[in-house]
Design goal:
Length: about 120
């Protein structure tokens, strides 16, 4: 591991974190005690972008540095499993079981679906 790689991933994460915050703002206060739409939205968008990225990486043989910057860095900083986990526990602690189950299932099923969609879209062209 080189300093260059660390800087690429770190810079990507920094940018991804800012983008996550900006993209979640329109939905953040919509339902502050209910379903965490803002994290679901950002994670699904990140999954789609990850599918597109790795589809393009396969197709055009992108350099490792690009994959690390965009994949581990930018999209790693953009999406957040820790927020997903915390919000699920919060929903369960607040006895919002339907929201908790809906959130987990929609995150996993839709996340996998849009990642596949991104890969499929790039492979089809």
């Amino acid at each position: 591991m080189t300093i260059k790689i660390l800087l690429l991933v770190g810079t990507g994460s920094f940018i991804g974190g800012i983008l996550r915050y900006v993209c979640s703002l329109p939905l953040y206060d919509k339902d502050p005690n209910g379903f965490p739409w803002y994290t679901l939205w950002v994670n699904l968008l990140g999954c789609l972008l990850m599918g597109l990225l790795f589809g393009m990486a396969e197709r055009w043989n992108l350099p490792r540095e690009w994959k690390l910057f965009f994949g581990a860095g930018l999209l790693g900083g953009f999406t957040t499993f820790s927020a997903f986990s915390y919000e699920t526990i919060t929903l369960l602690n607040n006895a919002q079981y339907t929201y908790a189950i809906s959130y987990v299932l929609s995150s996993v099923i839709l996340g996998l679906s849009v990642t596949f969609l991104g890969l499929f879209a790039v492979r089809s062209f």
